[in-house]
Specification:
Blueprint lengths: L4 H4 L4 E4 L4 H8 L4 E3 H7 L21 H5 L10 E4 L6 H14 L7 H4 L7 E4 L5 E2 L7 E2 L1 H15 L9 E3 L6 H16 L14 H7 L3 E5 L2 H11 L3 E5 L18 E2 L3 H20 L1
Helix pairs in contact: 3-5, 5-7, 8-9
């Protein structure tokens, strides 16, 4: 999401998610941001069934709605960034829908907003529908939250096509593989392992293939980890492990991995074996 900073650096942005998302957003360079919790505390009638968080998130200058006028007619929200999985779906769904339907000003009445409010772009960091923990069944992820949010928007607008941008970052989308390519080429350049004509900033697959015989992408979720690596193409090599979301017999039929093993240790061993085999055949 750092790539959004040039366009949104000085624009009011709503941040959604658990953890230190506000600090991360500010570190990226978003200078005028507030969290869903801050907006909900400033507008308690918007979420009447929620337990208000007290002064949580009000440090460092107080409430950004009251002090800076964010999410108001003077400074409407221009984008929503769902950075991590939301903690309270009721609050997050209600507040984000209010922002989207009002053109960035939740207190603006529907009569003023009209049928075509100003667009508020919507970004998600992770499209994963499911993820795994110690519970015996997979848990709903950020992708599930996104589906619920967009389904509710569709119902509330009677099927009207959104007039705003909806974009997912994260696997299986190409952005993570481009960033990984940049990082790996940079490290290889610092180690003197790249030809002089290769620009590590490009992160291009041609340059990656010239330097790396294989980049092994190990994951437990076929819909994101394996699909993304397969789409990225060589030298990215998909490796499916069965210690998380996928636990079926054999390989995944819908998104088959190039290598399928039981756990991460087996994945590392398989990658080393494949690399040794490639080196052996290249010397013959």
């Amino acid at each position: 999401m750092r790539s959004l900073v040039p366009a949104l650096q000085q624009q009011p942005v709503l941040i959604c998610g658990r953890g230190s998302v506000l600090e991360v957003a500010r570190h990226y360079g978003f200078n005028r941001c507030l969290t869903v919790e801050q907006l909900a505390r400033a507008l308690p009638n918007a979420v009447p069934f929620a337990q208000q968080p007290g002064n949580a998130g009000m440090q460092n200058g107080g409430c950004p709605v009251e002090k800076l006028g964010l999410a108001t007619e003077e400074h409407p929200i221009r984008a929503v960034l769902v950075m991590t999985d939301p903690r309270n779906w009721y609050v997050d769904l209600q507040i984000i829908l209010d922002v989207l339907l009002s053109g960035g000003v939740p207190t603006r009445s529907p009569a003023i907003s009209g049928s075509s409010p100003s667009p508020v772009d919507l970004y998600f960091s992770n499209p994963d529908l499911l993820w795994a923990n110690d519970f015996p069944r997979n848990r709903l992820g950020q992708g599930a939250f996104a589906h619920v949010l967009l389904s509710m928007y569709n119902e509330l607008t009677e099927g009207k096509k959104p007039n705003f941008l909806i974009k997912w970052f994260g696997k299986p989308n190409p952005e993570p593989y481009f960033l990984a390519g940049q990082s790996l080429l940079k490290q290889a350049a610092h180690m003197g392992k790249t030809p002089s004509n290769i620009d590590w900033m490009s992160g291009s697959h041609n340059h990656l293939a010239a330097v790396f015989s294989g980049i092994y992408c190990v994951g437990d979720n076929p819909c994101s980890d394996i699909r993304g690596a397969n789409r990225a193409g060589l030298p990215f090599t998909s490796v499916l492990v069965k210690t998380g979301v996928f636990k079926g017999p054999g390989n995944c039929p819908r998104d088959p991995a190039m290598i399928c093993v039981h756990d991460v240790l087996s994945a590392v061993e398989a990658a080393l074996h494949k690399t040794r085999s490639l080196r052996f055949h290249s010397m013959r």
